[in-house]
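User: Show me sequence and structure for the first protein, then do the same for the second.

Assistant: Starting with the first protein.
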Amino acid sequence: MNATRYRLLTQLLTQPTAPFRESLVVDFVTKVLTRAGVPHFFDPIGNIVVGCADARAYRRKLRAARTPVRLFIAHMDHPGFHGLRWRAPNRLAVRWYGGSPVKHVAGARVWLANGDGYVGDGRLQNVKLHPAGHSIATADVVLARDARRSDATALYGGFGFRAPVWRSGKRLYTKAADDLVGVYAVLATALDLYRARRRTDSPFLGLLTRAEEVGFVGAIGHFELGWLTPRDNIVCVSLETSRTLPNAVIGRGPVVRLGDRRTVFDHSGAHLLSEIARTVLPGRHQRRIMDGGTCEATAAIAYGLRAIGLSVPLGNYHNQGFEGGPNCPRSEGPAPEFVHLDDIDGLVTLCRELLRPGANWSRPWATQQRTFRERFRSQRALLR
């Protein structure tokens, strides 16, 4: 990863974000796209559509496509909390959205932000867990300094560590890799395409969504618009930062995601993606059903769309200290997420290769079928 791209990645990872509070990520992304001359627009939900200047051009591109448009989907939020009200000058009642650690959370450090940026730090107190026991429900944040000048409901935040992002070797530790790494991959792919001036004929589109962590809300809203027609002209490509699992190891390359906890993905598209990965990243990619969670590919499939997936293996998923490391004092307590730079580079490589002409999207199994036929012919006499 060159210095320019590394700076883009780390600046993006630094941005505060939480479900329904993605505005600073949105501001950063749109500035990058505007400077590079990449067309983009907002859908009525507040998602960013990358690669077209407006909804009319978006629908026109889908209708005119001679090969399936690859719609790369990544989400801009990460689990976190919203401010509710002030209990005291330095004590803020908050509600949590999305997953979280449930152990060792009392006294955990958090950051706070509003629409202008970071406004301070605090500590969690009076933590109450969700009835299902899988996350925080509500808590108080005791502020390190008085931030009452801010409207309580404008504040939001998440777990805080020594810095928003830092590097150790080829690992990046951060407050939120899931799914800002996926957002980075969409940005990097768009920047490469528009620098190469393949603007008019590229089958690329990006969809950067809101509120994925609370049930794919942004993606569902986009699918509900009814713009994604004809469906045969679209392949949704979920880009995720997914919990590391056996056979999906940090540092061994991006994962061709065959499915998630809910469902398997499009078998023909997954086969084509696997063949591309085998060709361009031999020995440097992985294949697995990433069932540590669900992703927006499941939402796309529920709406009758073809969907495939790519993932970067993620340590300390949703800031839970499963893998430990720096700033993780207690197992399964709050911890920074971490990813590997080589995995991220591989992810961008596969995004770029998915857009190259020549892939047989109409008959992805043609090569394998020829092999089967030759095998049958060579041994047919033995069946007599």
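Switching to the second protein now.
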Amino acid sequence: QWYRRGINVAYNNKVEPQVYDFVVAWLADYPTVENWRDAINLTRNLNDYEGPEALDLLRLSRKAGVLADKQDYLFYIEAADARRLPKEVKDVIDEAYAKNAVSKDDIFVTDSLATANGRIKADQAELPVLERDANAAGASFRTVFAAGDAFLSYGQYGKAAGFYEKSLGMAGVDRNTALTRLGIAQVGVGDYAAAQASFAKVGGARAPIAKLWNAYA
């Protein structure tokens, strides 16, 4: 009750970034499904996350087992984009259907699923080429980072982590994005200590996302 009161006061008065430290302590002591859902929703409400940031926060919702609301699934599908991450979009839609969270009559979802299904085979065929190009000595930052994103979406976390680590040493990298996704990949392989170290280095607008992922790790 004291945690909830403290969080409510901090949330209503937008006491940032301290509210996130309080949320992390609350989750450490009371890591229930309801508390995880509230913590993630609070973070979304206090920030105008879109695209890549929203995707990584929704990935945490799914990982923590609190992704259930129809609008959250729709937001996830949109943020992931069936043209870029077809396998991840398909998996999310299949999960939404299995939970009856989304109607099979929803045109946006059915169109996204059709796009994903039509793209997966070609996307998988391109993975070995992308891996080869990203491992090349003269690989561009965009190729290396794209490889990290691709393998992360297919659940090949070890390869994804390697490419994100490589991208951190390249010009043009968004370090906060790379560190966030490196941590997510490290969680995927079960290297939680390394994941916590990666998340701890994240700053800027992504810091609240990283704090929650760090708490999960």
